[in-house]
Amino acid sequence: MEEDIIEKLRHQDIQAQELLYKKYANKMFRICYRYIGSECDASEILNDGFYKVFVQIKSFRDGGLQGLVAWMSKIMVNECLQFIRKRKKIRFVNESEALAEQSPISPDIRIEAEDYFELIKQLGDSYRTVFNLFVIEGYSHKDISEMLNIPENTSRSHLLRARQELKKKIENKYCYENRK
Question: Which of 37, 122, 136, 177 has the most beta carbons within 10 angstroms of its beta carbon?
C-alpha cells in the first residue's frame, strides 16, 4: 500500500496527491506555523511546500511512507527558512559562546504543550528559528550554521538565549500565577 501511493505520486496521480495532502496537511501546517507564527503565512508556505513535494517527488529516495513524511517535513522547514530570509529579514548577531550558566526550571512547574508553544512563538525570530531547528527538528549546530549561513557559535548562543528567555517567561507566568 505504501509503495503504491508513492509510485502513484511519482506518476503525478491527482487522487494520490489529494490523499497525501489531506492526510498530512495538518501536521505540515503545524511545522510551518511553529517557525512563522502567522496562520496566513504558514498556509502560504504549506501550499508552496506541497507544490515542491509534488514536483520533486521523483527525487525522493525510498524510505517508505515514514521516509516520505520526514522528507516532506524537511521541505516545509526549508520553505520556512526561505520565507524568513526573504520577508522577515532575520538578523543573527555573533555572540560570545561563554554565557552565564542556567539553573533548571523548578520541577514543580507543569506546562501544557499549547502554553509552551505559545511561549516559543513569543521568542525573537532568530532565537525561535534556531530553537525550532535544534530542539524540535533535531539538527546539529553545524547543520544550522550551514542552513542559516551563520557561525556555529552563533547558533549555540542563540539556542542558549532562547532557552534563557523561555525559562524567564515560564517562571514569570507560572511563578506569578502560583503566588496569587
Answer: 37
**Block residue for cell numbers 501511493:** 5
CATH of domain 113-179: 1.10.10.10
What are 32-84's pLDDT values in tens digits? 998 888 888 999 999 999 999 999 999 888 778 889 999 999 999 999 988 88
C-alpha to C-alpha distance for 148 and 26, rounded to whole angstroms? 26
The predicted-structure confidence for 155-170, as pLDDT tens digits, reads as follows 999 999 999 998 888 7
> What three-state secondary structure class fits 162?
helix
CATH class of 2-88: mainly alpha
In angstroms, the CA 90 to CA 123 distance is 13
Burial class (CB in 10 A: 0-12, 13-18, 19+), 31: buried
pTM of whole model > 0.85? Answer: no
